[in-house]
Amino acid sequence: MIATLCVLLGMPCPVMPAPLAPQASDTIRLEVGSKLVNGTVYKPHAARVRVRIGSDTSRIVSEWTNELTVGDSAGRAVHRWVTKGTQFPTNGQPVQWELRQTFDAVTLGILGYVSERSNGARAQLKIEGHRVRGTRQLPGDATVQQVDVTLDQLGFMAGASDLVPLAVGFEEGRVMTAPVWAPTWTKSEMRIFTVVGQTPITVEGTKMDAWKIEERRQSDRQLMATWYLLDKSPYMVYGEVPLPNGQVQRMSEVEIPMSTAK
After folding, report:
1. Residue partners of 73: CB distance under 8 A and separation at least 6
2. Distance CA 116, CA 135 (A)
3. What is the DSSP letter of 12?
4. What is the torsional sign of CA 75, 168, 184, 12?
5. pLDDT tens-place values along the chain, 262 residues long
6. From the centroid of its chain, how far is CA 216?
7. Contact between residue 48 and residue 63 where contact means Cβ atoms under 8 Å apart
């Protein structure tokens, strides 16, 4: 699980114009709770992600680990993702952060979100239906803000949007639309996922065949990300996110041993 985590990391979100996405009369229209989504394809695993800006040999600007465990919450099967990372600013001290997210194991609907950063930023949110409640604190601010928002539409986590295509299934040419949402948003946003097809790719020296997926914003067809996915751990092996300055944020992910600590 990657997505861009741009909201959490304070990185710029992509706004670079891109060509129109392919249109198809048989587009699959998804929503949270759709029977076409089966999140149980994701099994417990751990992975390490490295982020670079520009090229695959540029300096690492951020690094994190993802670990997925499967559990139960009041009789509901859930996925618990723990993400721990460090951001390396060009100037200044590294910022460490930890993110804990709980999803419905089948629908991939977000149920809980807890984040903490070494600069003092933190958030703790509980999502019940369309209602989001909790607290949020900005860096260097002693004031704790109360959060109580009712969403217009449930959305898949924008920071984990790469989970959606595999949960539906890879098929060359398949086009899916789905709403996504981030913790700082009051409304969800529609995205288009297009399965371009399988393609060879080399990730940190390892050659493999991965499924290439383009993710675009539906309203203006802007390219938000290109994902390279597998149907096994670590699932997302490479991602490219266009940035406003014309550069590309590149993410590589490799499998690592799972932690024994709980």
Report:
1. 102, 111
2. 12
3. P
4. positive
5. 654 444 444 544 444 444 444 444 489 999 999 999 999 999 999 999 999 999 999 999 999 999 999 999 888 999 999 999 999 998 889 999 999 999 999 999 999 999 999 999 999 999 999 999 999 999 988 899 999 999 999 999 999 999 999 999 999 999 999 999 999 998 999 999 999 999 999 999 999 999 999 999 999 999 999 999 999 999 999 999 999 999 999 999 999 999 864 4
6. 14
7. yes
- Between CA 92 and CA 63 the distance in angstroms is 16
Q: What amino acid occupies position 236?
A: M
- The residue with tokens 């809980």 is 112
Q: Phi/psi of residue 101, each to 5°?
A: -125, 140
- Give CA–CA dist 155/3, Å, rounded: 14
